[in-house]
Write a structure and sequence with these properties.
The structure is a single chain. The protein is built from 16 helices and 15 strands. The chain is an alpha/beta fold and 478 residues long. The protein folds into 2 domains: 163 residues, no CATH class; 307 residues, 3-Layer(aba) Sandwich (Rossmann fold), CATH 3.40.50.720. The strands form 5 sheets. A 7-stranded parallel sheet has the order 5-4-3-6-7-9-13, sandwiched between helices. The chain is elongated. 37% of the residues are buried.
């Protein structure tokens, strides 16, 4: 085989490795998404075929009918890739970088076939036989690639089996406290929390009006849901019983540059202002506005227990949450009950901060951040959905409500429990100084700072958490 062909194969391998580790493992995290079981199965079969192909091309010349085996492997790879393309479009939205990478992989694979097929035709025309051909470093490299592809295939099949054991609680049972039917407007309806809330409400027979900014994400919401892209699309006589405001620029997906901070602030304040304007023009006011906030309102504390009556410390997180809560306050002057939901770290495998931890922990590279003594006040996602429904259904519940489980833990305890659940060590501590140099305020407030928050209001009103302990939450979602 020619040097050009091996060069193209090397390029194919590099792009494939990038796609596997950057997209499948770290950004899309397919191994933890139950919806991607079939895609993982396709990846596993294809990786095993690649392993076989690398060994054949690296060490053997097969002549006669045996050469058709390689042709069959190449043809099977094409069929599996086409099936994979269809499955990806049906089950998830590919990011632009992954689409570009897939296109380049397909073009390069076509070029490899153009060069390889004449060789295979020549082998097919020769007498039946197998010849061992040692090609020096090429044979060794092909063996290494075969081992790598086989290991990736094993990883895909193992992840597929694990996803089959992960059971999700039926969505409709999370909002049983709501007597219905209710009409609920949700902003941020395609997000990690909003999409589950929308599915829970619609599954229980309630009418959901979902405000979405990106129509391409509409497929994330199961019908029946009324989709709008602007609040101006709602007439003044639209009956709305409750509004849940969850929209906002993500705070944990990038460093807090001045532009990022401004975007985080404006996205929340502007949306909340638009919702207040909608309430002002509605002929029949909604009963309640559940407006998002976060435990960052309290600022950075050490070990002090924080309830809804606690004071705050100044920092960007407090500035953000205080502005968000202030923007929702005028709705109260219009006769609407306003609840500011101060949400903690939300646990779930389909989104939230924990998804960034699963891959390094699964490969044994997890550990505490800094000293590990900072507190992490968390809540399992379905418990948060249940709490939102409870808040809507409880007429005398108003003002700030802490949306956190009753038993917060330190970062050291959190990482230890996650490692235990994944049967992996959690000993790779990341120095706080390194995190501060890289992340600045982002690291100080989100990674190394913390709050020990208790949900006093929810508990005093009789709300019962299904997952009070971290171990219970991890057993449910992992």
């Amino acid at each position: 085989m020619t040097q050009l062909m091996w060069t193209l194969i090397a390029i194919q391998i590099v792009m494939g490795v990038f796609d596997t580790f950057y997209h499948h493992e770290f950004t899309e995290r397919l191994a933890w998404r139950p919806s991607q079981r079939f895609e993982l199965k396709l990846h596993g079969i294809r990786n095993m075929l690649y392993a076989l192909l690398f060994l054949l091309l690296g060490w053997l010349e097969v002549h006669g009918v045996l050469a058709l085996l390689i042709v069959a492997v190449l043809g099977a790879e094409i069929v599996i890739t086409l099936m994979d393309f269809v499955e990806e479009d049906l089950s998830r939205k590919l990011p632009p970088s992954e689409r570009i990478n897939h296109t380049l992989l397909a073009i390069n694979y076509g070029a490899i076939l153009v060069l390889l097929l004449p060789v295979l035709i020549d082998w097919t025309m020769q007498p039946f036989g197998v010849t061992v051909v040692y090609q020096g470093l090429l044979s060794i490299a092909a063996t290494a690639c075969a081992v790598g592809a086989a290991l990736c295939g094993v990883r895909d099949f193992a992840a597929m089996r694990r996803l089959g054991r992960m059971k999700s609680v039926p969505a409709h049972g999370l909002v049983e406290k709501l007597s219905g039917p209710k009409t609920v407007l949700i902003s941020g309806a395609t997000g990690f929390i909003g999409s589950r809330l929308a599915a829970s409400l619609s599954g229980a027979g309630h009418h959901v009006i979902a405000l979405i900014r990106n129509p391409a994400k509409a497929e994330m919401l199961p019908p029946p849901v009324t989709l709008i892209t602007s609040l101006d699309q709602l007439a003044s006589d639209t009956p709305i019983d409750a509004i849940v405001n969850l929209a906002g620029e993500p705070i944990g997906n990038g460093l807090w540059t001045e532009a990022k901070r401004a975007k985080i602030l404006s996205s929340r304040i502007d949306m909340t202002g638009e919702i207040v304007k909608l309430i002002a023009r509605l002929e029949r006011k909604p009963e309640v506005l559940v407006s998002g906030s976060a435990i960052g309102w309290y600022g950075l504390w050490a070990d002090q227990v924080l309830t809804e009556s606690a004071k705050s410390h100044a920092c960007f997180s407090h500035e953000l949450c205080a502005a968000w809560e202030t923007a929702a306050r005028p709705a109260g002057e219009l006769g609407v009950r306003v609840v500011n939901l101060r949400i903690g770290l939300v646990l779930g495998t389909e989104g939230g901060f924990i998804t960034r931890m699963l891959t390094p922990f699964e490969f044994g590279l997890g550990g505490p951040l800094g000293t590990g003594r900072q507190w992490m006040s968390w809540i399992e996602r379905d418990d948060l959905i249940r709490l939102i429904a409870y808040v809507i259904a409880t007429p005398d519940l108003t003002g700030p409500v802490n949306a956190t489980a009753p038993i917060p833990v330190t970062n050291a305890k959190f990482t230890e429990e996650l490692g235990r659940r994944l049967h992996r060590p959690a000993v790779f501590r990341i120095p706080g100084g390194l995190l501060r140099r890289i992340g600045g305020g982002f690291a100080d407030e989100l990674l190394l700072g913390g709050q020990r928050v208790l949900p006093n209001k929810a508990l005093s009103r009789g709300f019962v958490f299904r997952h009070e302990t971290l171990r219970s939450a991890f057993e449910a979602i992992l």
